[in-house]
Amino acid sequence: MGASLNRKGVRILITEGENRSVLAAARGLASAGYQVTATAPSHRAAAFLSHSVAERITLPDPLPDPGVFMSGLERIVSTDRFDMLMPGTDMSLLDVSRNRVRLAPHVQIGLPPHAVVERALDKRELIAAAARHGLTSPRTTLCASTSEAIEAAAAMGYPLMVKPPCSVIEGGSSRIRRSATVVSNDAEMEAATRRLGVVLVQERLDGHPVSFAGVFADGRLLAEAVSRYHRTWPPDAGSVCYSLTIDGGPELRRRVIGLLDDLGWEGVFELELLEDLHRPDVWQAIDLNPRPYGSLAVAIEAGANIPAVWCDHVLGQSGPSVIAAPDFYYRWTDADVRYGLWHLRHGAPAAAAPVLRLRRGVVHPYARASDPGPAVARALDVGLSEVLPKLRNHRRRKPAERAIVIGAGPNGLAVSAHLQAFGVPVRCFGDPLRSWSERMPAGMLLRSRRRSSSISAPDAGLRVEDFERTEGVKLRPVNLSLKEFLDYGEWFQRQAVPEVERREVSLVQSDGDGFAVQLADGERLKASTVIVATGIASFIHRPIPFSSLSRDLCSHAYDHADLAAFAGQRVDVIGSGQSALECAALLHESGAEVEVLSRAPRIKWLGDGSEEHLPVPDRTGRFPTLEPPPTDIGGVRSGWLIATPDVFRRLPRRRQSEMAHANIGPAGSGWLRPRLTEVPIRTGLRVLDAAESDGKVVLNLSDGSRRSVDHVLLGTGYQVDIRRSRMLSPELVSRIKLADSGYPVLTKGLEASVPGLHFMGAPAAYSFGPINRFVVGTWYSAPAVARRVAGRPQPPISFAF
Predict the structure, then answer these.
(1) Nearest CA-CA partner of 363 in 323, 336, 341
(2) What's the whole-number mean pLDDT along residues 240-268?
(3) Are residues 710 and 726 in the same domain?
(4) Would 549 disulfide with which of 59, 405, 423, 554, CB 3.0-4.6 Å?
(5) Closest among 21, 36, 180, 30 to 89, alpha carbons compared
(6) Which residues contact 232 (CB under 8 A, 6 or more apart)?
(7) CATH number at residue 520
(8) Contact, 404 vs 73, CB < 8 A?
(9) Domain of 552?
(10) Taking Cα atoms as reference points, which of 714, 438, 682, 701 lies closest to residue 553?
């Protein structure tokens, strides 16, 4: 655009506007005359409520589902309405850099080569480059196991910093964001290495944290802002909550330029350093953020509009270098208050006292009189995520003395893992994934995509993509096969809940304030908490017309693990849902003569299951719409309600029923349609009666026709009624508050009206929504149950992913 660059009307797209760094960048760009569009996964994002943002677009979080994020981002920039794209976090920086071929035809991104981006995010590269330019780093050891980390700790002495080599741990189709932590003993070291995997164990030094930030391009600093941290939150290894801009001086500037040039970085950056308390010319490099950073607002206020300088450069105009003026204070208020409270609780009032000192003209990341929206967003965020849960849970429940989990399917394994993480003694009974291995037909594909087929665990590294990476296997890209899911589930069990007891529970009774649990082998146990996660075997639905038929002639889809036995037979499949339609396809492919009979007037098909057919984000202007949640259940709006069980359970009962029927009623995955082209599907028909005749089944249909078949296979689903359970004693069932249908009415933590009794899976669907019928529901139910059992506070709103 040359030297006559006119910023008016030039449009900048910033990703992930829910944090203070992106908000500051948006404000800086808008103040320079740029027109700013922000994306964020939530309509409550701070930048979405800022006057500085002209347009808001909801876009999924790139952390859990980078593929969907990139598809949406490509769709947005392909309109050619934007002049430049600025990634707001490490995750989107990686995605934009890795997929620049898809984006570059439509928008300027200004990033160096992808290898340089990866190098800038790698703490090992930072340490090596810093040493070459007089910016040494604390003594650091790379450790691939807990034993190596503990050995390094013995050599250095606690306390120590433990960091992931990169803040974004990538694997498969999703990533995990991990930050540094301080450890003080071997137990904390073991927990940290289990959470982070490969780690950098780093000596923890005293010193003044210093931020050297700016814009680096063409071998020179186009913008510079240096500040000294006074306080951070958390106090031992956190983000700055109070700082002051300073003059960095020519020597530090020279070394930073050398470091950045060595790494090959060009763009916005923040280098975090430790300034030696006794030697003012010694700095230790500890971290590099190659994108907008937390305290960016103070640099802009002090005269170094870093985001605008970078956009000017990328779009063709580089003016004279700018340096932030010294003596500008920055305060992240809510974090600073927590800093003070933390020191008061730890008996250090002198350290807490400076928090009470108020200064005029302090720069705040959210609060601004002329732009109050972001402060409101931040207040809501803090209130909903921190204050309200503490108020609601000020009377904590006493943790359970012992919990027994009945069932070792996805729900049982997930809650057992979470209970163990909370320190609750737990015993899990059942044959792992038995229903899946013995009651699901061979050749079946999961209706849910692989992105929503992971079992919840308290620690990172146990998702489907982690199994694929660590075991060196290649899984189907969209819908897992039954065998693939079984292999993953067995691997999950070995990693997360290795001590599953493969014994059957025959009876659960009340026993004083707790429960007596009878095992099939005669052993009797006592427990304060029982979690029922036994699946759907007790709730098989056989409609009345078929109730008198023998099981040899009429069976349920749940009864078969291999449909090849029906080869050469004539089989009528009853139903129009996924189970019925997939069984029909498998029967046909096994050589049976198949017909599908359905009461529904038509078959409801659910797309084709491919990532290319995911909904794309709409531009929303002032009132943004939502993206579909990554749960594969429901539509754009209903899907979010279903994925938020705390909200779903507060909806009117009629609305709950409508949503459940609309979103998990009988339907088939679109990828089944080509497999059923040769299978007759008769809709709008009811079976009036069914009778045995000469070893056949004769069906009389509502249209007056008859069928004579060798076998009837019921794909008629399940009807939950815990009164049908043979495991729960009649006396115990009589104490449980039930809905008319027989569902237990559950409260927070999926707890029944009998204290200490919890239900997971399909029985929880009445109270907490249909998400509980699927594996992805464990991401809500398992931590919710575990928190309740452990006496931990429940957040007011949690999501099922």
Answers:
(1) 336
(2) 96
(3) no
(4) 554
(5) 21
(6) 209, 238, 239, 240, 241, 339
(7) 3.50.50.60
(8) no
(9) 544-714
(10) 714
